[in-house]
Structure formats: C-alpha cells, structure tokens
Amino acid sequence: MEKLVVLSFGNGDVVNGFASVRAQLWDADRAYPIQVTGGLPGAPELPSLYRQWQLLYLALHHRLGIPSRIKIKAADVTNVSEMEFNQFCQRLSDQINYWLSSAAFRPIDQQLRTWLNASDEVRIIIETNDSYLRQLPWHLWHFFAAYPHAEVALSLLNYQRSRKSSPIKHTAKKARILAILGDSQDIDVHRDRSYLEQLSTQAEIHFLVEPKREELNHQLWQGWDLLFFAGHSTTQETGFLRINPMENLSLEQLRWALNHAIANGLKLAIFNSCDGLGLAQSLADLQIPQVIVMREPVPDVVAQAFLKHFLAAFVSGRSLYTSVREARERLQRMEGTYPCASWLPVICQNPAEVPIRWEEWGAAGREKERGQDRTAEEKQARDTQPATHSTSQNSKPKVHNLKSKIFPVLLSSVMVTTLVMGMRYVGGLQAWELQAFDQLMRSRPEEPQDSRLLIVTITEDDFQLPEQQQRQGSLSDLALAN
C-alpha cells in the first residue's frame, strides 16, 4: 500500500533546534491524516560536521583523480585517506541518528513505526526552509533500514499547485523529453545520451547539445513532460548550469520559459550534474512537481549509472520514489572506487502535486489531465453559479419529473385530512377520544395533600350559636372567630 509521511519542521534550525515538529500520515483509506507532534533539540555540531565531510569528500575525489561534473577549487581540498574518510562517514551517520533518537523526537519515530508496515511503499517528505537540514543525508536515518520501500524527498515549507495554462497540443502518443547536454569538458555526456536514446520507441526526445541561451529558451516554450540536463553545474547561493563552454546560466535567467514549461505540463526535471540542491530550490519557487538532483559533486560514471538504473526501473512501471531508491542503492557497489556514491541522488517534491508515473505520460496522459482540469473547473463553476430558473430545453424534463413526484403526495395528504375531519364532525372518533382522555387522567400520578391549603367547614351547630340568633344568611364574624 502506498502511504505518504510529511515531516514538517517549522520555526527553528539545526543549530538551535525545532520546538515543534509535525508528522502527518496520509493513505488512501482516510480523508484526513493521522498526526503526531514532537520536537528536536539543537545540534550545533551537525552543520560543521557536514561541512568537514564535504571538504573530505572533495579532497578524496581530487586525490583519486575521479572525473567530476563540477570544477573543484584547489583551495577546498586537503590530503585525506580512504580509511579516514570512511571513519568520518560513520561518525556523521552516528551523529545524525543520535540526534533523531532524542526524547523530543521519539513520539514521532515510535508512531511512524506503529502506523507503517515493512511492505508499505512510503514517501517521506521533509518540509523545511533550513539549508543545513536540507543538506543532511536523510537516507542514513535507521528508520529507512526497517522500511525497504520508503524513500525521502525534500520540500520547502510553502508551496502550491502549479498553474496550468492551455497546453500545447501534440499528436505524438509518447512522453516528450527535452534533453540538454551542456559543457562536456572532462566528462562524457554521450553516455547519458545513449541511455536516453534507448527510450526512443516510448518517448519523443529532442537533444540540445551545448545550446546557446536563445535556443534553450525557445525550446522550453514548446511543451515537455520531462526536462533532463547533463553537464557541469554548481550552487553559489543559487544554482547555475554551464550550458556551453562560454555560458553559465542561473535558473532565474530562464524563469519565464520555465514558468511556461511547467504550466504546459512539465512534471519532472532531472539534473544529472553536481551540487544540485540550489537548482532544486530555484525550481521549487516555480512550483515544479518533482526534481531529481545530486546533492554534491558527482563522478561522471556514477551519474551515468544512476541514470541507467533509474530509467530502467521507472519505465518498467515502478513509482518515481521506488525507482530512485532502487537506482541509488545500486550505486553502493561502486563505493569501493567512488566513496558515498549512494548518498548523492535526492528527490525534491512539491507536496501539492501527485508524483508522476511513466505510463501517465503521452497523449493519453495529457488528455486525462486536461479532462481532470476541465472537471474541476466545471465543478467550481457549478458551485459558484447562483440559482436561477432555467429556461433551457434540458431543464424541462427535470421540472416535469418534479411535478409528477409532488402531485401524488399532495393528493394523498388532502384525502387523508378530509377523511379525518369528516369522521370527527359526525362523532365517529368521540368514543376513542373519551377513552384516550380517561386513560390520560388515570395515568396522572397521585397528588399528596398541599399544606398550603386551609379548609374551613360550617356545620348546623355553628348556626345555633347565640351570636347567630339574630342574623340571617352567612355566619357572623363572632361565630367565625369561635
């Protein structure tokens, strides 16, 4: 069974802690979620620990001469051995789990384990605006070891459904993919292309090789289901793509084209490039449904292996989350050569949107989505339209049916009322009425003597009193006084 868990981290940050953390569990059998609240103490050592891990990760890849899809600055690297790095990875994992096992967070952990079954397919969304919390490798949480079909995604605290416009009509009954192959200096993006080309029988794919900004902007306005990028990227407060050897573009520079693409049905963006959390946050501001990025610099062969395994699982019918977890875990076999390869892929989700499946793409899927949008609009119009007397031909049968149902009821009511009034007028109901009245009087409870009542009795002796001899009629005052 598919279930959704939303962990919302409101006010606070990793350094100072979160006074309130809310967990909501959604499933198909309930209209409203199950909810439990907890908290997390401050963990000021975690951000610095993760930053140290980042530096050691860069240093190790630099020392091993591993081709990466990011330009590594020499000032960021130091000498490190694989053993030291592995020990540091274990230390980071232990510190994260120690933090998540704190007493304030324990009610959430315990309730999740009570609600969920190991066989459930679980989407866990981390809602937060804290950049340090978004950077943490959440898959290291021991919770995921007990739930093999669960995968984590990141989200901002504020989100809404993407605005839909009148989509561009396409006759192809296939998914439409725009694949951007950016600057390929020192990396091999042609392997990415070969994996995508294997989908040519199931998808309509348009490749842009080291495009100019104008060409990329133009293509984004044509309407796509999936946006793919392979090449060099980096995050410097915001995400940048190196689309060709001469141009670095931020997503802000493509904002209107991306807005139009999302409004026309863009559901998923995959950035098979380095340091993609900045790219994901920029796209989250545009309300894109789903994004898959690499959280850190990614070796070339690791990026290619992830794409290969993800596409194989996703196209075969598995869900987006299951496909990402399967592809991510299959990278673990490469960690002897490429440390922490399975740490890199991460989903960024707009919780207001339902995750897409491969079979929902194509003409049939787009028509289904348009039908759902029309249905929602028609329902809203019906709910907001004021009630009026309809004069259309379609309303006449409804009026006729209403009359045919009301007339027998009115006739029966008049006949019964006339019959009852007639029998009562001629006395036919009198015996029953008297019997019922007598029964009601007998049913009254016995009333005790009221002490507030005074009974005065007058006998013949009272009239024989001397005071009464000369008086006629009522008793004299003297006789009453005696």
UniProtKB/TrEMBL annotation:
Domain CHASE2: 417-481
Segments for region (Disordered): 363-399
InterPro entries assigned to the protein according to its UniProt record, in alphabetical order: CHASE2, CHAT_dom
Biased composition (Polar residues): 383-396
Domain CHAT: 99-343
Compositional bias ranges of the Basic and acidic residues kind: 363-382
One Pfam family from the record: CHASE2
Protein name: CHAT domain-containing protein
